[in-house]
Structure formats: structure tokens, C-alpha cells
Amino acid sequence: MSGPGRDGFEIERKWLLHRLPVGLEDPAGPLAARGERWGIRQGYLAAPSESDFAAIIGRVVPEAEVPVVGRIREIRRIEDGRSVVRHLHTLKGGSGLVRREVERPITAAAFEAAWTGTVGRRLEKVRWRIPEGGLVWEIDRLKTPAVVLAEVEAADRDAALAIRLPAWLAACVDREVTDDPEFTNAELAFRSGRFVGGSSEVDASE
Predict the structure, then answer these.
(1) What DSSP assignment string belongs to 52-88?
(2) Residues 137, 17: contact at Cβ < 8 Å?
(3) Do the Cβ atoms of 43 and 118 come closer than 8 Å?
(4) Which of 7, 5, 20 has its CA nearest to residue 125?
(5) DSSP one-letter code for 121
(6) What is the bridge-based pairing of β-strands 82-93 and 8-17?
(7) Model pTM?
(8) In terms of Cα–Cα distance, which of 79, 89, 94 is closest to 38?
(9) pLDDT digits over 138-184, tens only?
(10) Of 38, 30, 24, nearest to 125 (Cα)?
(11) Could you read off the pLDDT of 14-48 as tens digits, one per residue?
(12) CB-CB contact of 202 with 143 (8 Å)
């Protein structure tokens, strides 16, 4: 992820899974114990334009400023036995392996104010982040639509293309969907909206 106010890129591969890796749901299991478990709810506002990117790049945007375009996300996780919550506003552009990305923190109040504008374009998911081989593998289980995905980011295109799946994940893979627009989070959020018309909170401890 790029830092606040910086014009960056997300270089990421993605796979559709037919199930969760064995033992991932057991917090005391060896796989889950290596990483983190997050509860995420996110929603989509209007798609950002070039002028929207220009308005945020190179300046410090107040965290209380309410987003009007892009994606907003709430992340809940357990840290040292307590629940930690943070909120992010992200602009993304492009498709496939390499995408433009600018991200900044926002306040809970700014998130809630913008959340009202995401009805029908929301999703919630549980994310496991498992470090291995110098990478962080992210496993997402969405509630609606019922989809399980794996993602991993790399430093550059060549490094991304050279990535090999760890054995515990390879056994679960249906196919790679890096270049399939049907499996972007935005598209999945729109599909979720058609099913349920919105989304509720999900807690990292559930």
C-alpha cells in the first residue's frame, strides 16, 4: 500500500480458492498463529478521476476530511488482547497486476459520514495475513457473495510473476484471477449489494 499523499502502485496477484487452507480457522493452530486475523467492512463511493488523484497527492489531507470518491475501509483486529480499529480511504486506478494506489488514514467519524454513500456497494470479510518467504499472504473469506480469495503483493512486476504458492495454499487454489475483473473487490461489493443491499459490521474476533 502507498503512504498518505504519495502516488504509488499496488503490484498484486490474486487467486480464487475452493476452500480455506486447513487449520486456518483455528486461532491456536500453527498456520493461524503465525499471522493476524482482521475483520473488514468496506464500501465504494464514486470512481476517482485523475483530478481526484491530483487533489490528494503531495499534500497532507486532514483525517477528518470526509471522502467523496474511492474506497473506504474499516479494519478491526485483536492486538495484545484488545480490539484495535482503524479507518482508511483509498484511491485506485487501472486493473490487473499493477494498479495505481493512494491511501490515507481517516477518522471514524469521517468513515461513518462517507459510509452512508456506499449503500449497495459494500462488502464484509474476514482476512488472515500469513507471513511466509518474505511475503505476506492475505486470505479473504467474504460473506456475500460467498467467495474465498488469496492475494499477495510484490515489490515489482518481475518479483510478482516469479512468486510460487506455498504448499498449504496451493492445495486450495481453483485458479488465478489477477486479470479477471469479476473478482476485484469493487465488483464483489456491487454483487453483494444486489444480494443484500448493504453490509453490517464484522468483528476480527468472530
Answers:
(1) HHHHHTTS---TTSPP-BSEEEEEEEEETTEEEEEEE
(2) no
(3) yes
(4) 20
(5) S
(6) unpaired
(7) 0.88
(8) 79
(9) 999 998 999 999 999 999 999 999 999 999 999 999 999 999 999 99
(10) 38
(11) 999 999 999 999 988 999 999 999 999 999 999 99
(12) yes
